[in-house]
Amino acid sequence: MHSYFPLKLRSCEINGRGDCHVAVLVQIKGLRYFVDVANGKPYDRAVQIGINSTIKSLSGCFHWNLRYNNESERMELCHSGETAVSFDPAKTVRYKSFQKMIIRSRSEKSF
Q1: Quick one: which of 45, 82, 85, 93 has the most CB atoms within 10 Å?
Q2: Which of 64, 55, 56, 86 is nearest to 73 (CA)?
């Protein structure tokens, strides 16, 4: 995987299921951003890590934010007051490690 910017893949948890989603951290001009382009939710922009503000999408109908949970030591993408996606910000995974996730997502209806 090649990019003009340093990318780090993160394995995410959704609804208590670990390692079922992929997100990206990218570094641009020394700042780190969270990008989630494949969740099916309107997370329509990169979010700078450390900025704890609410983002409005879909003409203001969908509110979401990214925050650090000190208790779990995980980053959490939240909307409607609930954690939708979480990941360990310090744990980078390799692209090939997602092969099992992809196979499961195509073979297990509950995945």
Answers
A1: 85
A2: 86
In this structure, how many other beta carbons lie within 10 angstroms of the beta carbon of residue 10?
22
What is the three-state SS of 90-110?
CCCECHHHHHHHHHHHHHCCC
pLDDT digits (tens, 9 = 90+) for 48-81: 887 777 887 777 778 888 889 999 999 998 888 8
- How far, in whole angstroms, is CA 37 from its chain's centroid? 9
Q: How many CB atoms lie within 10 A of CB 86?
A: 21
Span between the terminal Cα atoms of the chain, in Å: 25
pTM beyond 0.85: no
Q: Exposed, middle or buried: residue 67 (CB in 10 Å: 0-12, 13-18, 19+)?
A: middle
- Please report the pLDDT score of residue 60 as a whole number: 77
Q: Residue 73 to residues 23, 54, 67, 69, 87: CA-CA distances in angstroms? A: 17, 20, 10, 5, 9
What are residue 62's DSSP bridge partners? 57
